[in-house]
Specification:
The structure holds two protein chains of two kinds. Chain A is built from eight helices and ten strands. Chain A is α/β, with parallel strands linked by helices. Classes of the chains: A alpha/beta, B alpha+beta.
Chain lengths: 255, 67
Amino acid sequence: MLTIGPYSFDSRLLLGTGKFPNFDTQKAAVEASETEILTFAVRRMNIFEPNQPNFLEKIDVKKYTLLPNTAGAKTAEEAVRIARLAKASGLCDMIKVEVIGCDKTLLPDPVETLRASEMLLEEGFIVLPYTSDDVLLAKRLEDLGCHAIMPGASPIGTGLGIVNPLNIHYIIEQANIPVIVDAGIGVPSDAARAMELGADGVLLNTAVSGADDPVKMAEAMKYAVLAGRGGFEAGRIPKKLHANASSPLEGMSIL
Amino acid sequence: MKMIVNGREVQLPESVITVRDLLEHFQLNKELAIVELNQSILDKAERDGAKLSNGDRVEIVQFVGGG
């Protein structure tokens, strides 16, 4: 069970809704993933081109918890404005704080992320900041009162997987709130690895939406998260530098 | 009546008096639309009845796909 603030979820896989080839594929992928949390961005409506389809019309919104992001914001103030707009939808009170500080790497601006999180917590939002894998920043965000922290595995959309598993390990080890590894996941083994490290959840988008078969990848990610979590809960064996036979040594005299 | 909607200056007929009229004028999906009027975000409950004036700045946004 994944608990974020007042909400509990059976699924530990959070799915983004960007860049799918079409709504039918997206809907099938969302269903195959068995996710309960969908992320969205907030953007202007095109007033001169009405009746454009929107994915929200294609799904039963009541079945999902919506997690809007503040993507596009470069300052804390911009992030707060987007978060308020999202909340005015009346659909959700969770917000993924995303304040990008670098256009090339899309890495989050730590100072603005911290400021935005503080302001949004004061306004009563359920706050989930997207952060780098900085261990101390994760601690500072937790100390502010954030409801979860979402360190990146690697830069958004790269599919490079977890480039610094040691930092992710440290973040998980010290955290008393859920840690959701967000961004950079490329393949199911990346998601499984994050969960084996003890992450409480994984948020991914491009790994599914950009796959040759998004529906199949969504299902594979579901199993990867389950397998990784199972492995973590089961407790791995210690790593050893020398072999240790698993077959018995007694009764070998017959050879 | 003239106003700035989503960054563009638009001329609106006299029949557009409230935000609800504005959304209907542009045939926008009222379920999805989130409206900010002169930098003040309108809650769902107060949105439709909010009165518009000449020179208002309106932002109409929605949820779209994103990660």
